[in-house]
Amino acid sequence: MLSFLSNSWLALLLSAVIAYLLGSINWAIIITRLFSHKDIRTYGSGNAGATNVLRSQGVLPAILTTLGDLGKGVAAVLIGAWLLTNLNLSGSVPAELRTFAPNAAWLIGGYFSWLFCILGHMYPVFYGFKGGKGVMATLGTMIVLDWRVAVMALGLFLVTVAISRMVSLGSVVAATYVPVLTLVFRGWVDEMSTDAAVFCTVLSAIIAAVVIWKHGANIRRISEGTERRIGEDRETK
To answer: What is the pLDDT of residues 171-227, one digit of tens each?
Structure first.
């Protein structure tokens, strides 16, 4: 594993840079400027995400924002996975990597790029490092990395939102279960090696923790009973 990573430093570097730059393309900001010529971060909750776009700009801008965030997540993972698979400077795959997982290079590149795409989305270099919370971008990456986790997390999100009428609570619940679902599918369903299952789960847990942390203000409002629900007219910061 170490020999593979040492010979893949260029692929890792390119994956990180490309994923971060893709993540930094904030479609909530771009779409809002196209539709209203203003910054979405000055509206509603101040978050540069699809929910705030829906509340302040309408359905079409929100759909376009969602598609853009999903798309950049998909692109980041595919590019990272391709780079790790095809840009190994040694020209060969070490034996220990084959025991890690049959598609080890693809997995490493994909999960590594997921992390940097989310960091770019949250802290975009193009917009003063003030971006969104990474929910739609995470869903986009998970569609490619493990569609089963994506579908189940989306289901948890929809059920939670339907019951609570709080998008933020649905996002937190879905993020919480992403590493759990990853462990179940990678470790038991796919029967991956322990190292591979742990790698995927740990990366998922780190990203889920960052997404939940970005919802800190929402969590406080939920605990106080002041979080905005779907259908309410008042705006919260």
So the answer is: 999 999 999 999 999 999 999 989 899 999 999 999 999 999 999 999 999 999 999
pTM recorded for the entire structure: 0.89
Rounded CA-CA distance 38/169 in Å is: 28
**Single-letter amino acid code for the residue at 4:** F
- Is residue 23 a contact partner of residue 115, using CB atoms and an 8 Å limit? no
| Dihedral Cα 126, 131, 134, 136, nearest 10 deg | -80
Q: Nearest 5 degrees, angle CA 126-CA 39-CA 49?
A: 75
Provide the H-helix boundaries in the chain. Answer: 2-6, 9-24, 27-36, 50-57, 59-86, 95-100, 104-122, 135-145, 147-164, 167-183, 194-214, 216-224
How many angstroms separate the CA atoms of 130 and 144, rounded?
A: 26
